[in-house]
Amino acid sequence: MGMTSGAGRRSGYLWRRIASLPVVLAILVPAGCSVVERPASHRLREGIARIRAAGEPLTFEELRAGQSAGEGVDAASDYRAAATLLADLDSGPLFDLVKAYRAATRTCPPVPPSTEVRERALRMLAESQPALDLIDRAARDEACHYALNLETGDFPPFHLFRTAGGLLSLRTLEFAFAGAVDRAAASLISELRMLRVFETEPVLIAYLVRLAAWERASADLPAVLGAETLSEASLGDLDEALRRAEAPYLLKRTIEGERVWEMNQLAASLGPDWPDGELQSASAKRRPFWERRRLLRQASDYVAVTAAMTHAAGEPWPQVFGAMPAAFRIPKMFSPDMSADLASSLPMERAGQALAATRAGRVAIAVERHRRRQGKLPADPFTGHDLLYQRADDRFVVSSVGPVRAADARAVDERGRPQGISVCLLRPGR
Questions:
Q1: Which residue among 40, 73, 352, 398 sits deepest, i.e. has the most Cβ atoms within 10 Å of its Cβ?
Q2: Which residues, other chains included, contact 361 with Cβ-Cβ below 8 Å and sequence gap of 6+?
Q3: What are φ and ψ of residue 395, in 5° steps?
Q4: What is the rounded end-to-end Cα distance, in angstroms, of the chain?
Q5: d(CA 268, CA 330)
Q6: Listed residue (423, 419, 393) closest to 406, CA to CA
Q7: How far apart are CA 346 and CA 182, in angstroms?
Q8: Are 161 and 190 in contact (CB under 8 A)?
Q9: Is 391 helix (H, G, I), strand (E, B) or coil?
Q10: Are 293 and 33 in contact (CB under 8 A)?
Q11: Nearest by Cα to 349 from 217, 172, 150, 211
Q12: 281: helix, coil or strand?
């Protein structure tokens, strides 16, 4: 009887231990996960602190600081109204016409499109005149604050601005073929000024749309510069519009804007587990413990890789070409396909080509101004061909090949006699 009673007690104790196991696991497993989560959470907190110490934005409010329209007329309302007017325009025939006009500019001298093509183009431009008038008026406004709704991901109808850009290209090329060169220049300036729509709150999609519009405007530039003589006023206005189109800090701001948007999404996903009170979402619920470690690791990896990208984007050209690929050490949170998309989503080559075309246009304007003053283009008296040009870190040299026909750019020959000019840049620029 005593043995039976002892066995019963032992059996009851065992069953009580087994019954309590889920409770113990419920306590120990989250505690263990919490210990594992700490390194990722600590690394994420350090990454956020470095961003804040660098003075880079972490919130939408910080991203928008200093970017408001301020006093005066804001062009954004006219751009919005123009996009609304173009909602029903079929862009297929439009871009077929642009393609035909572009093909006509590839010969030297250009051969105008057929009469039938030009008549169709003129009809389309006439029908779209109200929208074009609004875009031209917006181009003359100094300020443009085209706010996006980054918090909700509610972006503007980018395809309508692509249509607007196509219309501006078509008009620019038609003016150039018609000999209305100053009007062609003004139309191209409207193209370049519309780039501001995508600069106020930059994120990746807006940057890529802007890049496509910039490339389109660059493609129209040769037709304008190669048309009949532009007025001095048009040359000056076009040079200024090209200068503004460079937007040297936009790439860095784009990555910062994309990071702000993504970090707010990550903070909302992690809720109370996000290790920074400023970005925490009060309404978000705590994620299950088996997801928290992964999410924290992904967030800290994202902060690390975008920090490298932001630094690379802040480098001057051409150093950015070498710095950016090194920054694309895509963390394991991304699939191989997504890694490839990210590596090509900031196409440095395309940005460099658009920038090169813009700067080449400005040099062409400077050469044309010299030609008008001197009546001819500058040439090397020893060859009759172009003078040599070479740029170093702190100077540039323009020189002749000289009597010895040296192919390198030197301001003086072996005896110290001048054969060009070497200019020291006290404040080296791009």
A1: 40
A2: 218, 221, 225, 238, 242
A3: -160, 165
A4: 99
A5: 23
A6: 419
A7: 35
A8: no
A9: strand
A10: yes
A11: 211
A12: coil
Cα–Cα dist 375/112, whole Å: 28
- 282, 337 contact by CB (below 8 A): no
Q: Are strands 388-391 and 395-399 parallel, antiparallel or unpaired?
A: antiparallel
Q: How many helices (H) and strands (E) does the chain have?
A: 15, 3
Q: In a 3-state reduction of DSSP, which class is residue 142?
A: coil
Which DSSP string corresponds to 397-424?
Answer: EEE--TTTT-SS--SB-TTS-BSEEEEE
Residues in the chain: 430
DSSP H/E element including 110: none
**Model confidence over 273-303: pLDDT tens digits?**
788 777 766 666 666 767 778 888 888 888 8
**Contact in structure between 405 and 382 (CB atoms under 8 Å):** yes
Q: Reply yes or no on whether the pLDDT at 9 is more than 60.
A: no
Under 8 Å between Cβ of 191 and 217? yes
**Parallel, antiparallel or unpaired: strands 420-424 and 388-391:** unpaired
pLDDT digits (tens, 9 = 90+) for 113-171: 999 999 999 999 999 999 999 999 999 998 898 888 877 777 888 999 999 999 999 99
Which structure tokens are listed for 285? 């619920």
- Beta strands (DSSP E) in 264-404 are 388-391, 395-399
DSSP 150: T
Instruction: Quote the pLDDT of residue 32.
Output: 38
Give the pLDDT confidence score for residue 404 in this predicted structure. Answer: 79
DSSP single-letter state for residue 346: S
Mean pLDDT within 230-256 = 93
